[in-house]
Specification:
It is a single chain. This protein is mostly helical. It has a domain of about 80 residues: 434 Repressor (Amino-terminal Domain) (Orthogonal Bundle), CATH 1.10.260. Helix content is about 50%, strand content about 0%. It has 6 helices and no strands. The longest helix has 14 residues. The chain starts with 18 loop residues before the first helix and ends in a 10-residue tail after the last helix. About 10% of the residues have low confidence.
């Protein structure tokens, strides 16, 4: 390797605290590799993880909450190496994390209480009574 050859420098995802900042950095990644939206669509399709033009625009403009696999497809299409992809996904998880005090997603089995007589037939243990 010659003294003048350098490794490519990727925009740094770390430090993104908001979806808008994360999106700006995704767009900087795309621009740093001189990719257009159409070239990313083509590259993602060729890599077997196709994403649409609309998805790419949504990612770089912070429209809605992106899916993690869309971010991964975007990173692969940009040519980010695996180590950089991990850094981006860690930041994505931090930026789009659900607040700790948010209610958990409802489950179908939690929708209706089970009648006590059905509990024994189903092998479900009785719920303890809380006395105050």
């Amino acid at each position: 390797m010659s003294a003048n050859s350098t490794m490519p420098v990727f925009p740094d995802p770390m430090g993104s605290n908001t979806p808008a900042e994360f999106a700006r950095r995704l767009e900087a990644l795309m621009r740093s590799h001189r990719h257009s939206v159409d070239s990313l669509v083509r590259r993602s399709r060729d890599a077997g993880t196709p994403i649409s033009r609309a998805t790419i625009y949504n990612l770089v403009k912070a429209t809605g909450v992106p899916r993690r696999d869309s971010v991964m497809a975007f990173l692969r299409a940009c040519g980010a190496p695996p180590r950089e992809q991990i850094r981006w996904l860690i930041t994505f998880d931090q930026v789009y994390a659900r607040p700790v005090d948010a209610a958990p997603a409802p489950h179908a089995h939690d929708a209706a209480p089970v009648h006590p007589s059905a509990r024994s037939a189903l092998g479900i243990a009785a719920q303890p009574r809380i006395v105050m």
